Amino acid sequence: MKKLVFADGHLHTNPVKGMGIKVIAKKFAELGGWFVVLVSLPPHHLGLDNTFEGYVKAIDILVNECKLSRELGLRAVCLAGVHPAAIEDEVSKDVKHSVEILEKVFKVLNYIAKAVREGLVDGFGEVGRPHYKASPEAFVINSIVTRYTLTLARDLDVPVHLHLEQGGELTAIDIEDYVKLLGLNRLRVILHHVDVVTARASQAKKLMFTVPGKYQVLREIFKILKPEYMIESDFIDDPKRPGVSSYPWNIVENQLKLLNENIVDSEYLYKVNIDTVVKVYNVNPP
Ligand SMILES: [Zn+2]
Q: How far is ligand 1, taken at its centre, from the CA of residue 163, in Å?
């Protein structure tokens, strides 16, 4: 029997306040982890201001974490973006300057596009819409930012992780519209952290997505979906907020538990953890 290996389709590491990739990569690899998608944290998580300069420093930290994870033997994809919650946070404090906030976000996204062209970063993430009721101004900024980022991702032919509202079929309809209108590669647009209903609707439209690797979610999803998606921890590496998301090793433990309970077979797990990853991110299999 082939050895099972595991991918984490979306996580954040925080070498300033949390464990950082050095600790995380070691623990994840010990359990068979081979691949990670490292996504940038908003500057304020790293003790920086959410200014353009703060974003540049946060991206530097991300690039370094990616480099370290590769040195530690993991295959890593490195995504940078402007989180919708960070935009909401800024707009709620200073709604009169909404347009200036939008212009700063454009500047950050253009900086990320440059980093992509230089080979420092592999794509965009996360951008998108909040999953809670937002201020109208923040909502429209996030909508403009989503469209702008998708256009950049299309032109550079790189992946983008979208943070969305979990609107089930409505969310899938909207993202499929974007894909068609902007002429995007369906494999490069990843709906991140979707719930079971949105996952099902997305798969029906052949959209790519990641699901949180929680036991109950996987238990349900393994029974109803084809293995054409990825599992993520969405770990935020914040010691002050333990349990907000899973640890990368938890998603491995949950898959192994469900394998032992015969809810899923190893063939399915190979497909989710290797085949889909190879197809979406153009990486060599382990
Ligand atoms: Zn995230």
A: 8
